[in-house]
Q: What sequence folds into this?
């Protein structure tokens, strides 16, 4: 009887693990809650996924995903490139989950209870977690380690190499906005690139309409939607039309809706892949084109514009036709830890954004640190440390970095805060003109643009070079 | 009246500041108590000394002393090299005091009260203090910064460059045992070098005595002193002879005395300069030679040996003839923070030592981490983190480091844990055969050996190169 249970357990395990075709063991690693205080001995456990199918000996390379703000399984499923190359490198695959995300909650359900519990959610602590895990997996430092990640995970991968070069041989930082910090890049860069993606989304517009028709309609929508939000009758119309889970009932609800819509537009651009994907949401191929396809002509009447905008929005919210009501409290799927990221943005990851309504399609809004800070105080009782990340990791001067590939897709609004120019011959910059947010880390797809295919070839060769150099030095 | 007070204050200030001939302003900088927890907003102030006499413009270089375990004025007074070269570089001089030492006590008199108050005493926090101070002094990062330091201060200078290369252009790490950690160098290396320094201390011995007479006598003293310590009569003799401030009254007191004597021998070697100095104590020129001069023959009777040993010891303890009683609780001057360092050694700075009695002159003793750890638990209620420093900073692999000079005097027992071989062309290793502990940082002296003079010339040229490279990249 016992054996049957074991067998059933094993089957269940295998079924759950091969979801999406990737097989991994789920393990946990126990480390210090606070790596920077030597009298605090509290520990916690974080999750990591391992696949050693390609490992031939105890000096095999390690491909190490520096987990970012979400459930690590989500990232494992969306990082097909690594699964593909591991056999070619004979490498161990490790996906480490970032503390406070997924199932790696230091205080369980109380992790997000108050600022005191949240205080250990920092990038420095996360990197120290990863360093500890690597020392455990590679105690003699005999195995070359390649860190990689996308977005904030890419930032972590690059910083991991920069701060712990003795543990990390090289890093692939995909779509990593390591420069999106105060005083380094202009605050409107994100919205400017985002707008340009929507501007060129339609291959061709119906006769007579300007190419800017989509962003013109989006711009016009702000005025119209805000007007409708400002009175009972208008809100009644919007509630019926958009089917909000929580009905709008006061003028200020517009702010929530607008914040949500900005996030949706950003996410559409980030996930603007040439094939259907379910990264930030279930989306069709080229979702920005699909979105703009609903807004490709002039709408003489405001209600027509709202109708069309609602149709467009459903590309993001309801592509799978399962929507029962529209939850505008967050534009992110539940397996992305948006609350944790909000906290990080309110402490260390201060990334200024602004809009001017001219070179971008948004309502003009200056970057106002005071307002931002007040908001953080209200939300988390913390004051953001505007300069913390740049003091810790450096922005303007990164010329000592080595063995890092920074890759950016130009369709990705985050590319504005990415490294687009190399500062020495040991740092490679890869530009993917047709690429959205870390498309290069994804699995091969027959619709991949040539630049993505080329970049993946380059990465593999570069990884081999780093591994060779490491082994030569042993 | 007010003016008179101001004037008197100013005079007092100048008098105190020009002590030893170096003029500086004493300032304080307020920063975070915990740089790695973003919900803890507590701050504290640390001291730093500044001299801007050579500064010509707001892009002048900064010479930054990464303060170590002691009163920063002590280090300022013993780092004459920097005072000499600042005018040649047109540089600002900054000596930053390490948290928990000197007057930079985060919790005032309560800083050492218990482990909770001591928890913020770590090298990572100290480096983050220095990073914050540099961001304040050099907000636009337009000024090249050269960090320097000796001993633990040298370790901090090297690590500062390695961890914050965007803020630190280059580093001079003098006598910095960055490799004196578990699993990197053998635990007996310190005592082996120390013994060899005593072995060759005497230019020539009286006819017929072997060159090893000094260390033979030291070795024999352990047996004799331990025997005397083990009974009332013997202890009475020792108490009369050594004039302990707290009389020995039980067999175990030998352990305290032996620990003290080991420290004294180590300090004699570290401060074995060719001229009188008052770094670790008021000492004559070549104090090891002086010490051994008292032990340069055979002593048939034990009491004669003890007499001679006492005479020898007074080279360290009573060179200024002011000793009223011998305090064996610490071999360090009160302006060196030995308690703080004890705590650091019990947390992060685990530097194994051992003796075998054969290749060294000490009582054989294995490195026993368990015993070491138990001792730390007793003293500070902490468990040492054996691997912390090497995980954080790296030991075996430092090949990505650049713009660092590691210098070591071969008369310095700490040189065994220093970097004695360069790992790339951007790291320079300077060996000073006749040098003791960071002699190269001291002021010029006509008795300086040629190797010290040469090394100082090399440093200045290298600093100029780094500064030029920095300015070229601007």
A:
């Amino acid at each position: 009887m016992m054996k049957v249970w074991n067998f059933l357990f094993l089957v269940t395990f295998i079924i759950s693990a091969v979801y999406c075709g990737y097989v991994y063991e789920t393990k946990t690693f126990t480390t210090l809650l606070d790596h920077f205080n030597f009298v605090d001995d509290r520990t916690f456990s974080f999750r990591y996924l391992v696949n050693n199918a390609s490992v031939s000996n105890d000096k095999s390379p390690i491909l190490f995903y520096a987990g970012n703000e979400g459930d690590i399984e989500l990232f494992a499923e969306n990082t097909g490139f690594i699964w593909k190359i591991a056999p070619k490198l004979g490498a161990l695959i490790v996906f480490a989950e970032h503390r406070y995300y997924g199932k790696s909650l230091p205080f369980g359900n109380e992790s997000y209870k108050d600022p005191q519990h949240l205080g250990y959610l920092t990038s420095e602590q996360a990197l120290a977690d990863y360093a500890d895990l690597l020392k455990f997996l590679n105690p003699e430092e005999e195995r070359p380690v390649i860190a990689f990640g996308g977005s904030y995970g890419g930032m972590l991968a690059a910083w991991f190499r920069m701060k712990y070069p003795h543990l990390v041989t090289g890093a692939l930082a995909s779509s990593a906005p390591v420069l999106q910090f105060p005083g380094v890049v202009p605050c409107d860069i994100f919205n400017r690139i985002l707008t340009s993606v929507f501007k060129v989304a339609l291959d061709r517009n119906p006769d007579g309409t300007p190419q800017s028709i989509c962003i013109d309609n989006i711009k016009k929508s702000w005025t119209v939607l805000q007007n409708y939000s400002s009175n009972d009758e208008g809100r009644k119309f919007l509630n019926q039309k958009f089917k909000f889970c929580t009905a709008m009932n006061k003028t200020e609800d517009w702010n929530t809706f607008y914040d949500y819509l900005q996030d949706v537009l950003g996410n559409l651009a980030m996930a603007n892949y040439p094939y259907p994907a379910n990264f930030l949401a279930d989306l069709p191929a080229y979702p920005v084109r699909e979105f703009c396809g609903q807004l490709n002509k002039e709408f003489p009447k405001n209600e027509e514009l709202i109708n069309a905008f609602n149709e467009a929005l459903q590309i993001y919210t309801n592509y799978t036709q399962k929507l029962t009501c529209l939850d505008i409290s967050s534009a992110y799927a539940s397996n992305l830890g948006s609350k944790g990221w909000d906290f990080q943005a309110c402490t260390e990851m201060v990334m200024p954004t602004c809009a001017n309504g001219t070179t971008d399609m948004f309502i003009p809004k200056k970057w106002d640190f005071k307002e931002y800070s007040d908001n953080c105080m209200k939300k988390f009782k913390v004051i953001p440390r505007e300069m913390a990340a740049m003091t810790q990791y450096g922005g303007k001067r990164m010329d000592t970095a080595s063995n890092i590939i920074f890759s950016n897709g130009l369709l990705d609004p985050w590319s504005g805060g990415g490294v687009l120019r190399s500062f020495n011959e040991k740092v490679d910059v890869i530009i993917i003109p047709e690429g959205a947010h870390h498309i290069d880390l994804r699995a091969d797809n027959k619709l991949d643009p040539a630049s993505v295919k080329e970049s993946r070839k380059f990465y593999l060769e570069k990884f081999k070079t780093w591994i060779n150099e490491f082994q030569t030095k042993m």
Notes: Chain A has two domains: 25-182+391-473, 188-349+351-380. The first strand of chain A starts at residue 25 and ends at 32. Chain A touches chain B through 47 residues (CB under 8 Å).
